[in-house]
Design a protein that fits this description.
single chain, 6 helices, alpha/beta, 6-stranded mixed β-sheet, Rossmann fold, 6 strands
């Protein structure tokens, strides 16, 4: 999206604060499990992870800590302190419903590459657009804070370019296992 159309920080914060994400909301927990369960099938504890774009209430990070992982959170609005990179990098980075909010996704992507360990795992959950024809009527683009959109070909390109093995365990989840040393 062109920079003149990007929402302000105040608009973004107001939108995110409308979310009522709770540790007690079974529907929300099931929603997060679309990313959490594939991650659990691919990473064994102990491991260290980063919830990137955790929002005002980092429910997923707490769930993963309960699963035995050493978790950190980062969110530019709600947890803005830079993550403390472990010596060999994070074993995994999970980003649920955050990448579509990135104003400069290439910057965050490079940050992920810098933070992720060799053989580390990226778990990204976002709605993927399917075709140019369907994009015009796609509800997801109507959220004014959704400014970056991805399709499967985008993730295939990034995986090939940056040395990842790509899996798609769901319609809106990608797992990207780093295959190269950093």
């Amino acid at each position: 999206m062109s920079s003149e159309f990007l929402p302000s920080i105040n608009i973004e914060r107001a939108e995110y604060e409308l979310h009522q994400n709770s540790d007690d909301d079974l529907g929300y927990l099931k929603f997060l499990d679309r990313a959490r369960l594939p991650l659990l099938n691919n990473i064994e504890s102990p491991a260290n992870g980063l919830d990137f774009g955790s929002g005002p209430n980092p429910v997923l990070a707490r769930r993963l800590a309960q699963d035995g992982f050493d978790m950190q959170v980062y969110d530019p609005l709600f947890a803005p302190n830079p993550p403390q990179k472990p010596k060999n990098g994070f074993d995994f980075i999970v980003s649920t419903e955050a990448i579509e909010h990135f104003h400069q996704p290439d910057v965050e992507w490079q940050q992920w590459l810098d933070l992720l360990s060799p053989n580390g795992l990226l778990v990204i959950m976002t709605k993927r657009w399917l075709s140019v024809e369907k994009f015009a009527n796609w509800h997801y683009k109507n959220d004014q804070t959704h400014v970056s959109f991805f399709n499967l070909a985008t993730f295939e390109y990034l995986a090939k370019r940056d040395g990842f093995l790509l899996e798609t365990p769901g319609a809106d989840v990608v797992l990207m296992r780093r295959l190269c040393a950093v």
